[in-house]
Predict the 3D structure of the following.
Amino acid sequence: MKALVINGPNLNMLGIREPGIYGSDNYDRLVQICQEAGAAQGFDEVEVFQSNHEGSIVDKIQEAYGKVDGIVINPAAYTHTSVAILDALKAVAIPAVEVHISAVETREDFRQVSHARLACFATITGEGLQGYAHALELLKERLEK
Ligand code: DQA
């Protein structure tokens, strides 16, 4: 079973970027958490991808069709703007979990909209980087049903 973890813009800046909101761990740590949690959940492979470009994220979701069993996605700022990412998730219809490191529901009004959420069976917010481990757990449960 293969999981794909997709991270949107500025998540490569973790550790440097607004540590009061996103914590002091860097992107390499995020990758490590995903790979360890994926192995613990019994996934054969967890690919972790990051891009600052909306179209590259759409391409990655399309490429997952027929190859990936489940997706964990933090579209970052594109959460709040991208119908293209929503449509790509709907097109491939791969079970997906939305993750946000911060508690977006307690932040600015513009962060209260999530387009990607409409194509995800669960959303995790405010659990820091461990939210990715939680998402992989939910994904595994869903795929076993
Ligand atoms: C984020 C929340 C978004 O609002 C923001 O644009 C991000 C990160 C999070 O993980 O908390 O870049 O998705």
